[in-house]
Design goal:
- The strands form 6 sheets. Strands 17, 18, 19, 20, 21, 22, 23, 24, 25, 26 and 27 form an 11-stranded antiparallel β-sheet that branches.
- A hairpin with a 2-residue loop joins β4 and β5.
- The protein is built from no helices and 27 strands.
- It is rod-shaped and about 110 Å long.
- The protein is mainly beta and about 350 residues long.
Length: about 350
C-alpha cells in the first residue's frame, strides 16, 4: 500500500456491494431503513432490516450517504443485517387479532450472497444459514424473525458505495403431490439498498524519506541515489523521494558565477525539510560536486557517503539555497518528510 497516495473523493459510486437480504420501509422523515410492517409483505418472502457497517445504519438516500472514517487502506469493516420472513396473518377461529399478528414462517431461505465489484465477498460457501429455517415464533408487527448475518469486507478504495442486499427463496418446482410445475414458480426475491461513503481519517503524521536530485543512478548504488549532470548552464530537475520516486520538489542549478553554482531546493505542498537526518544528525541538505564520476574500485563507489559530502547545511524553510563550487556532476541528497495519513498498526 502506498500510504502517500492521494485519494479523490468523488461522489459517483465506484463500486457495488451486493450483500444479502431483503426489502425495507422508511419511517417518516428518516433516511434510514426501518422494520417494515409485515402486513405489507408477501407471505414467505424474505426481507432484511438493520443493514449496517461498523454498527452504523446505512442511509437509503444516495445524496446523503452514511460517512465512515477509515484510518488507512486497506481496512476491514464489519457488515451486518437481519433477514426476516413472515407467514400469512394469524387468525383465531377465522377472526383477525387486534392488533394483527404475523407468525414467523417455518419455511427456509435458500440463498444469500454478497459481492463487491463482481467478486463474491459473502455467499453460499460461507453463509451460516443458507437453506436454514428462519428462527422465531408467533410475532406481532416489528417482532421476531430477526436472523442476524455478519461478515467482514476489506475496503481498499475511498468513495461512495451503493450497498445492495439480496436474499432469495427459491420458487417451487413441484406441487404438493410431487408433480413437476411447468413453468416453475418464480423465486421470491427481496432487496435493500443503502449508501456509504468511506473517507480517510483527517489525522496525519510526518514520515521521513531520503530524496535525490533527478538524473542517472549512482554507479553501484543499492539505494535510490542518483547524480545530476551539469553542463555549465542553468537547469532544473525533480527532487525524487524514496524508491517510489515520489515528487518531493525541484532542484534548480543556476548558471555559474565566479566558479560557483547556487542550488535552490523548493518542496511540493505536503512536504517539509526533516528536522534532522535519521542517520547523519543535524543536517538535512547534502551536496557533492564531481569533475568525473567514480568507477568500480574508487573511493565512493557504491552508495554515496553523503555524511562526508563537502557541502552540508540545515534547511528550515522552502525554498532553500546553498552555494557550492562549480562541477560537472552533482549529487544532491535531501532529508525530507511527507505528510500523510497516520499508519495503522505500524504499517
Amino acid at each position: 500500500m502506498n500510504t502517500g497516495q492521494m485519494f479523490e473523493r468523488s461522489f459517483p459510486m465506484r463500486r457495488t456491494l451486493i450483500a444479502a437480504a431483503v426489502g425495507f420501509a422508511l419511517a417518516a422523515g428518516s433516511a434510514y431503513a426501518q422494520v417494515p410492517d409485515p402486513s405489507t409483505e408477501d407471505p414467505n418472502t424474505p426481507f432484511v432490516t438493520d443493514l449496517k457497517i461498523n454498527d452504523l445504519p446505512l442511509s437509503t438516500d444516495n445524496t446523503a450517504p452514511t460517512e465512515i472514517v477509515l484510518d488507512g487502506l486497506p481496512e476491514t469493516v464489519d457488515v451486518s443485517f437481519k433477514v426476516w420472513m413472515f407467514g400469512p396473518e394469524s387468525k383465531d377461529k377465522g377472526k383477525s387479532y387486534d392488533p394483527p399478528q404475523f407468525p414467523c414462517t417455518t419455511d427456509k431461505v435458500d440463498s444469500v450472497e454478497a459481492t463487491a465489484e463482481g467478486s463474491i465477498i459473502y455467499g453460499p460457501e460461507d453463509e451460516p444459514f443458507s437453506g436454514a429455517t428462519i428462527p422465531g415464533a408467533l410475532a406481532t408487527p416489528y417482532a421476531g424473525c430477526d436472523q442476524l448475518v455478519e461478515f467482514e469486507w476489506a475496503v481498499d478504495e475511498l468513495g461512495v458505495y451503493e450497498v445492495v442486499a439480496t436474499a432469495v427463496k427459491d420458487g417451487a418446482t413441484t406441487d404438493k403431490d410431487g408433480n413437476e410445475l411447468d413453468p416453475p414458480e418464480a423465486d421470491k426475491v427481496g432487496t435493500m439498498t443503502g449508501y456509504v461513503e468511506f473517507v480517510l481519517n483527517a489525522e496525519t503524521c510526518w514520515y521521513e524519506e531520503g530524496a535525490w536530485s533527478a538524473g542517472d543512478a549512482w554507479p553501484g548504488a543499492s539505494s535510490p541515489a542518483t547524480y545530476t549532470a551539469y553542463n555549465g548552464a542553468a537547469i532544473t530537475v525533480d527532487l525524487l523521494a524514496a524508491r517510489d520516486q515520489m515528487l518531493a520538489g525541484t532542484v534548480d542549478f543556476s548558471a555559474p558565477d565566479n566558479n560557483e553554482v547556487t542550488i535552490t531546493i523548493e518542496l511540493e505542498d505536503g512536504w517539509r525539510f526533516a528536522e534532522e537526518d535519521e542517520e547523519d544528525g543535524d543536517d538535512n541538505v547534502y551536496v557533492q560536486g564531481y569533475d568525473e564520476l567514480p568507477e568500480d574500485g574508487d573511493d565512493g563507489f557504491g552508495n554515496p557517503r553523503y555524511g562526508q559530502f563537502a557541502n552540508k547545511d540545515k534547511a528550515e524553510e522552502s525554498p532553500f539555497e546553498i552555494v557550492v563550487p562549480e562541477a560537472n556532476f552533482y549529487v544532491v541528497k535531501v532529508s525530507v518528510e511527507e505528510e500523510r495519513a497516520c499508519a495503522v498498526n505500524g504499517e
